[in-house]
Design goal:
Number of helices: 3
CATH architecture: Roll
Number of strands: 5
Distance between the termini: 19 Å
Number of domains: 1
Radius of gyration: 18 Å
Structural class: alpha+beta
Helix content: 10-25%
Strand content: 35-45%
Largest sheet: 5 strands, antiparallel
CATH superfamily: Hotdog Thioesterase
Order of helices and strands: EHHHEEEE
CATH class: Alpha Beta
Length: about 160
């Protein structure tokens, strides 16, 4: 069994441009997940926790907080992409083309776009990948690119 399947993650050398990872398992978002996350992060928009208010919006029901969607989709990718990351260098081009509602189940896929050795850290490399989050019916609800600094395989 490879280290990635043991939950230890991939070293820099284990990534190849063009590799695609189907992240598993999916994650169903519950009402408590959305309410707690929204209030914990001090987001006061009632579309995320007030059923009566949300019923009067164009969506007709409570929306899942987009930052919760980003957090869950990113978390789903960790085992395959950043379990050995030294640092998360950032997200770019975050897009949310469709809403997420309580009861939706999220799934994610990532593709390795680029990798290069670090110029300032000889034992580490930089990996950039694109992730797509979709819900149970296949609708894409989030896309982004993420860049991480990851350890190289130790010398034996």
């Amino acid at each position: 069994m490879s280290a990635a399947h043991q939950g230890e993650g991939r070293y820099y050398e284990d990534f190849a441009v063009g590799d695609i990872y189907e992240h598993w398992p999916g994650r169903t978002i519950g009402e408590a997940d959305n309410t707690w996350f929204t209030l914990l992060t001090m987001n006061t928009h009632p579309a995320h926790f007030d059923v009566e208010y949300a019923a009067g919006t164009e969506f007709g029901k409570v929306l899942v907080n987009s930052c919760l969607t980003l957090s869950i989709v990113t978390g789903m990718t960790v085992r395959d992409t950043s379990q050995r990351a030294v640092a998360n260098l950032g997200w770019t081009d975050i897009k949310m083309p469709a809403p997420v509602f309580v009861g939706d189940t999220l799934y994610a896929t990532s593709e390795i776009l680029e990798k290069r050795e670090s110029k300032s850290r000889p034992h580490q490399g930089i990996v950039r990948f694109a992730t797509s989050g979709r819900k149970q019916d296949g609708t894409v609800v989030m896309t982004y690119e993420r860049t991480i600094l990851v350890s190289k395989r130790p010398a034996e």
